[in-house]
Design brief:
This protein is mainly beta and about 250 residues long. Helix content is about 10%, strand content about 60%.
């Protein structure tokens, strides 16, 4: 009987204490969710810039018809020089993601030649430096004041190549390049809210053009030229803040 009465009091005590425990638990402060990272440096808006660097070209030359030498064959012409360009672009920013469009206009210094030993008397030239341009899309991720990005798109080059021969009586023809494509990557770092410095690598493929040699008798010999250029440059950009949305700068 005593045990039964004690058990009843224990159950009654539990029933009275349970609501109090629930109320105390409801009054306890809830743990806040972890904060979402917020970019503190704004990349959005128009910007302009300038850069300098080096360029390294490769022109792979191949005769398109038998010309008295080894056929088929290839000859490699290499060139290196300096480059400089101006830049204009616009960035959009969504949190840590930055994307936009960028255009460059600059100058490539490409000069080189190589004798084609397989052809005997032919000499191939990258003989004319020229202007280049590109219009690319850019996509990157910000890490505080650092932007890591990739880019790619259309490229243009107005330089030329040619093939000549030591045999007299031939008319030398050259080939001019125009459209191609480019792709690359870079890193940009803000030294102030509006000024940034960058390092960038680009690869250009300007396609294949054919230069010709014409003999005094009218025979035409074609030489295809496949031109690619690698570029490594450093530069500076200035953000103009024309109507750009503001993200906390500090």
């Amino acid at each position: 009987m005593k045990q039964s009465l004690a058990a009843k009091f224990a159950v009654l005590g539990f029933l009275l204490a349970a609501p109090l425990g629930v109320a105390q638990a409801a009054d306890m402060p809830m743990k806040a969710p972890p904060p979402v990272p917020v970019p503190t440096w704004s990349w959005a808006g128009f910007y302009i810039g300038a850069d300098v660097g080096g360029d390294w070209a490769r022109d792979v030359v191949s005769p398109t018809v038998a010309d008295g030498g080894v056929f088929p064959r290839t000859n490699l012409v290499k060139s290196s020089g300096v480059t400089g360009a101006g830049t204009v672009g616009y960035n959009f920013q969504n949190g840590m993601v930055v994307y936009g469009i960028e255009a460059d206009l600059g100058y490539l210094t490409l000069r080189g030649n190589s004798r084609d030993l397989g052809g005997g008397t032919e000499v191939d030239f990258i003989g004319n430096s020229g202007f280049y341009g590109d219009v690319t899309g850019r996509l990157g991720v910000t890490l505080d004041r650092t932007l890591i990005y990739v880019k790619g798109g259309y490229a243009y080059y107005n330089g030329s190549v040619s093939t000549t021969t030591l045999i007299p009586g031939f008319t030398v023809g050259s080939a001019s390049f125009s459209s191609g494509w480019t792709a690359g990557a870079g890193l940009e770092y803000k030294i102030s809210p509006d000024w940034s410095v960058k390092g960038e690598y680009l690869y250009f493929d300007f396609g294949t053009k054919t230069a010709t040699l014409t003999s005094g008798a009218g025979a035409v010999f074609g030489y295809s030229n496949a031109l690619t250029v690698q570029m490594l440059k450093v530069g500076v950009n200035y953000k103009l803040n024309w109507g750009a949305p503001v993200i906390a700068k500090y």
